[in-house]
Amino acid sequence: MCDVMCLCHLQVQNPHSIKYNGTIQGLKYIWRTEGFRGLFKGNGTNCARIVPNSAVKFFSYEQASKGILHLYRKQTGNEDAQLTPLLRLGAGACAGIIAMSATYPMDMVRGRITVQTEKSPYQYRGMFHALSTVLREEGPRALYKGWLPSVIGVIPYVGLNFAVYESLKDWLIKSNPLGLVQDSELSVTTRLACGAAAGTIGQTVAYPLDVIRRRMQMVGWNHAASVVAGDGRGKVPLEYTGMVDAFRKTVRYEGFGALYKGLVPNSVKVVPSIAIAFVTYEVVKDILGVEIRISD
């Protein structure tokens, strides 16, 4: 959770008042200004969000995979055909869109709880208080601010996670380099490595959209740790009319590198979490005696 906290601050901090430039500096700054509890702001909301998000994502992937495989076999006339990497990418994209849309309001308020300051107009006491406050003060549409870049970003992110993980596993099982395969199965360590590779590729490709999503979520929330820029009349808060406008203003005022602010803490968080999620899912299904696995 410390990485999540630092990540959110890095993504939205004011470029004209840089407080820290990296993960370690960010953690030290948060510790100094907000104490130990500051490192875990929004953790409860994050836990409440990740459980249904992961459940919906894996379930949706399995159902989408079955549907796509059925259509693919029917189209090719080959009843033994298997999913290609591209088809796995499509199934993963469908799962990501469904899971993101189902839990997006919780992700939105998690971002606000994480970056709220003492000067914030509303002090959110928790997820439900944040949800009710945003709904009351800004309307239901505010709960889906940044939804479009999130959905667009989740297509390559989740899609690549599933496609890379499954395709890499298949390749290792078929080629068996370095004798990694035993009894037609990969070890937990090897599967963790596959998951780490999938997480690294997916989050790197989709990361700019995550930055834009987080910034759009802060629009309309005065005194948050949001971005400001000079427009010839002094420094003013940035307002975005949409995803394209957010991209344009971010690159214009801060440069292309701003789209990758917080990439390091995001990698520290995402890569192991994706690897553990995939392996845990498969191991738990084995324990429960569920025969159908992701790759099936």
TrEMBL record:
Solcar repeats: 1-67, 83-171, 186-287
Domain of life from the UniProt record: Eukaryota
Locations listed in the record: Mitochondrion inner membrane
Membrane-topology annotation of the record: Multi-pass membrane protein
Any one GO biological process: transmembrane transport
Pfam family, one: Mito_carr
GO CC entries: mitochondrial inner membrane
Keywords: Membrane, Mitochondrion, Mitochondrion inner membrane, Repeat, Transmembrane, Transmembrane helix, Transport
Family classification: Belongs to the mitochondrial carrier (TC 2.A.29) family.
PANTHER family, per the entry: SOLUTE CARRIER FAMILY 25
Protein name (Swiss-Prot/TrEMBL): Mitochondrial adenine nucleotide transporter ADNT1 isoform B
Taxonomic lineage of the native organism: Eukaryota, Viridiplantae, Streptophyta, Embryophyta, Tracheophyta
